[in-house]
């Protein structure tokens, strides 16, 4: 593969952007599978939280066990800002490909290790401590995945299709969640509660190793992006990209953190915490909860790509602002409908909430990548995305459970989502439209 100039098609004519279709397909595949592995793990952990709680916190009551389990989920996010700094530095200084190839290796190894940790009944307090250590390693490695894959795709994409290309990243996220939901549903149907507690919950985590190795193999076969190779050729790569980010692009960084807030809270409340909410707070059966989430995720993937196309046509700001406005006005009514107890109504509400979230989730990767110049793109994306997710995303299931416990209202997660939408609306409204402009290099 050549850079943006000089590559010819078989007919002798230059291909658009100098990048052939097969290369772009491999870039899409490499970006998809790494992010898929990462979010498959997070899905399984969220969907099996109640079972994991009994394995690692058997002496706690049900709600306390859930809080402790989601607390471990949140702690793994606190290391993500540190990971964002380090992976951003690697990605902007050494290259996107090298960062992505290493991050998927660490993530898949850590996820596989969860399956091997003995329960509380075998090693006592060392069981939750071991789980905590592995979750921290996962949080660190995950910090570079979403940002790196998004930057990779945007820098390879044709100028007028950056939105749809970058939408592959949240689509792979939803696909990982979908597989996690399917496996959780299958296990809940086929295994008894005792079997799930003893060994069944471990099975999904074993899949991470082979999937991760496949993803790494695909990634090491690719060249870095034309944008980064151009910086290397001009000897224009920054030695300290994170320092340059805070010194020269702090305004864009603040706007990015605010823009991510709705995505951070909405993603984990709607797509990860929802099965637990339906089963533990509303009394639905675990199987029904997983089935509803699985169907909603199938529609979510389709909506993601429609959103990517819409952001290319109408602009990033219009789509992101639409998402915030819809969440402000419709979230609490949607949560009120969840309490009706009607499965069809609950399914339709989940599809609606998912469709609203895709307006944000499907647009955010291209918006964030375009917000920063090539020299600090990986760092800007990784730091902003991981800061917001560490503070608000990883804590969302914990905060939702805590708000319900303290307020006594099952609508509390809906109000939390509304507040996040207000902050994101203000941030996006203050940002510039980037969809029609060339990628910044400096």
From TrEMBL:
Residue span of region Disordered: 1-20
Pfam families documented for this protein: MFS_1, Sugar_tr
Major localization class: membrane
Chain segments annotated as transmembrane: 66-87, 99-117, 123-143, 164-187, 199-218, 253-270, 290-310, 319-337, 343-360, 381-405, 411-431
GO CC term, one of those recorded: plasma membrane
Signal peptide residue numbers: none
Subcellular compartments: Cell membrane
Similarity annotation: Belongs to the major facilitator superfamily. Metabolite:H+ Symporter (MHS) family (TC 2.A.1.6) family.
Stated role: May be a proton symporter involved in the uptake of osmolytes such as proline and glycine betaine.
Name the record gives this protein: Putative proline/betaine transporter
């Amino acid at each position: 593969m050549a850079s943006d100039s000089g590559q010819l098609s078989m007919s002798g004519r230059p291909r658009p952007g100098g990048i052939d279709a097969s290369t772009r397909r491999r870039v899409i595949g490499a970006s998809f599978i790494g992010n898929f592995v990462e979010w498959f793990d997070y899905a399984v952990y969220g969907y099996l939280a109640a079972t994991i709680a009994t394995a690692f916190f058997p002496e706690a009551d049900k709600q306390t066990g859930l809080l402790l389990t989601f607390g471990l989920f949140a702690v793994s996010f606190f290391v993500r800002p540190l990971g964002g700094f380090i992976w951003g530095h690697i990605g902007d200084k050494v290259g996107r490909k090298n960062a992505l190839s290493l991050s998927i290796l660490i993530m898949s190894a850590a996820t596989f290790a969860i399956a091997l940790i003995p329960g509380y009944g075998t090693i006592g307090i060392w069981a939750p401590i071991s789980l905590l250590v592995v979750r921290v390693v996962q949080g660190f490695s995950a910090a570079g995945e979403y940002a790196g894959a998004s930057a990779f795709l945007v820098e390879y994409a044709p100028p007028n299709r950056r939105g749809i290309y970058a939408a592959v990243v949240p689509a792979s996220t939803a696909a990982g969640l979908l597989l996690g939901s399917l496996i959780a549903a299958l296990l809940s149907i086929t295994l008894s509660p005792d079997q799930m507690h003893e060994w069944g919950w471990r099975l999904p985590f074993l899949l991470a190793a082979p999937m991760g190795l496949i993803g790494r193999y695909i990634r090491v076969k690719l060249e870095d992006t034309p944008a980064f190779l151009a910086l290397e050729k001009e000897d224009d790569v920054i030695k300290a990209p994170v320092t340059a980010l805070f010194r020269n692009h702090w305004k864009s960084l603040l706007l990015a953190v605010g823009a991510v807030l709705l995505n951070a809270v909405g993603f984990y409340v709607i797509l990860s915490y929802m099965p637990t909410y339906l089963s533990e707070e509303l009394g639905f059966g675990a199987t029904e909860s997983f089935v509803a989430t699985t169907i909603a995720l199938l529609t979510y993937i389709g909506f993601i790509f429609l959103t990517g196309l819409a952001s290319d046509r109408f602009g990033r700001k219009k789509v992101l602002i639409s998402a915030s406005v819809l969440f402000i006005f419709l979230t609490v009514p949607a949560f009120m409908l969840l309490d009706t107890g009607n499965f069809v109504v609950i399914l339709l509400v989940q599809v609606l909430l998912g469709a609203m979230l895709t307006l944000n989730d499907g647009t955010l990767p291209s918006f964030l990548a375009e917000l920063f110049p090539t020299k600090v793109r990986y760092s800007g994306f990784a730091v902003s995305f991981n800061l917001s997710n560490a503070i608000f995303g990883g804590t969302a299931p914990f905060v939702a459970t805590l708000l319900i416990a303290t307020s006594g209202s099952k609508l509390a997660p809906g109000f939390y989502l509304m507040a996040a939408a207000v902050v994101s609306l203000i941030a996006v409204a203050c940002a510039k439209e980037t969809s029609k402009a060339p990628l910044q290099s400096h």
